Amino acid sequence: MKTTHTPKSVVVVGAGIAGLIVARALARAGFTTLVLEGRDAPGGAVRSHRVAGLVLDAGAESFATRGGYVADLLAELDLGDDIAAPDPTGAWVQLPDTARPMPHGGVLGIPAQPWSPAIRRTLGTVGAARAWLDLVLPARVGAGGSLRDQVGRRMGYAVVDRLVHPVVGGVYGADPADVTLAGLAPHLADELAASGGSLARAVRTVVASMPSGASTQGLRGGLYRLTDTLAADVEAHGGQVKVHTKVTQVAHDGDRWTVTASDGDHEADLVVLASPMLGGLAGLEGVELDQGRPSTLVTLVLDDVRLDAAPRGTGMLVAPGSLVDAKALTHSTVKWSWLADEAGPGRHVLRVSYEGNRMEAWNEENRQRLRDAALVDAGKMLGLALSGSAVIGYDVVVWTQAMPRPSAAHREAVATVKALADATPGLAVTGSWVAGTGLAAVVADAVAVGQALVGPDDGDGS
């Protein structure tokens, strides 16, 4: 962002986590701060819903510990003592022919030890032997191209189908054929040169550099508490967060900005685009950002003591060709001990996620149909026949634009937008569409943007 004077008023477009972080920094520094959000609540994919009397995460429920960015923010918000590690048993993977525990120690499903017993059990002897060849193949093999082709050429396509695709599809909502290693895991791509082109050696280096303990963490009570605390802090320092307020255009007259929204026009010295709203910006004609794949999350609360045994650990990821329609399942009351305590003995929370918008139309018939489908899929994945009579509550949430796929085309479009923002007085951009998927990346980018906008001499740090 380029500035010619010190802005005093700001409009932040989008009240996701990134928008709230930047708004908080600016409000604390004395800026007149207005956050506009088109949805009915702030937080983006980090928000809550109530199911069977439990307040649960309706979207993201964990964050990567990489870099310590999220933990530092939570500590700053006096939430650090509530950081919680997931159950260490880990998840399973649903394969076309069986179900297996997901091997530990990989990145994006790419194994660090291709010949380990866990990899041999998942890939078979032939598949593991093919994966081991990555350690001796020339560096030029697999270089460039999509993540699917890069991993497939170096380790074999069994690794892609049985390990990488379940992780990339279930966690990031993307197809390995549509993304690149550099786009999804730049830290891993950076290690490839030093590893002689070997993916396994690069994964070992990345894993060794991670802090000890769980690679992901959550927040006792729910990750949505981060959203609630950020929004409250913005308003406590004089800012305003308005929901149900869709922005349709931003315009610059050379001195001030005008943000056109469903409630009228808002003038400001500074505009922060924390969501991909490019309407009205000259120079971006024809720029197309990836909108991400919609996803549908069905949350089930059941009374079934058989689930106390955690038959598939903390949940399951699903490989292509498996006999279930879902892309992932999280057994939340196994994954989070605090939630198990809150739910009580024999009561369980299952989150079943699907690719695409499965609602078609928002009506009770569709909701019940999805509940029944999720119950069947969950039973198949858990190896149990689950009864509808055990369901004491459920909810269906459809997420759109929550996870833009980091394709080469999307990265090029983002680079164009960032270049314009750097050259335009009073314009800044942040959010997952800029920083990439995952709370760690989003928080790191938003904190940096907020600090740059406030400047070293602004704010009282209170």
Please explain how this structure is put together.
Helices cover 35% and strands 20% of the residues. The chain has 15 helices and 20 strands.
How many strands, which pairing sense, and closed or not: the largest β-sheet?
7 strands, mixed
- What is the number of strand segments? 20
pLDDT averaged over residues: 91
Which strand order spans the largest sheet, edge to edge or round the barrel?
8-7-16-17-18-15-19
Shape: globular
Give a quick precis of the structure.
The chain has 462 residues and is of the alpha/beta class.
Offer a few descriptive terms:
462 residues; alpha/beta; five-stranded parallel sheet; 20 strands; globular
What is this structure's SSE topology?
Elements: E1 9-13, H1 17-28, E2 32-36, E3 48-51, E4 54-57, E5 63-64, H2 69-76, E6 83-84, E7 92-94, E8 99-101, H3 117-132, H4 147-155, H5 157-172, H6 181-184, H7 186-191, H8 199-209, E9 216-219, H9 224-236, E10 240-242, E11 247-252, E12 257-261, E13 264-268, E14 270-273, E15 295-303, E16 315-318, E17 328-331, H10 332-335, H11 337-343, E18 347-355, H12 364-382, E19 391-399, H13 408-423, E20 427-429, H14 432-435, H15 439-454
Parallel strand pairs: 1-2, 1-14, 2-10, 7-16, 14-20
Antiparallel strand pairs: 3-4, 5-9, 6-9, 7-8, 11-12, 12-13, 15-18, 15-19, 16-17, 17-18
Helix pairs in contact: 1-9, 1-15, 3-5, 4-5
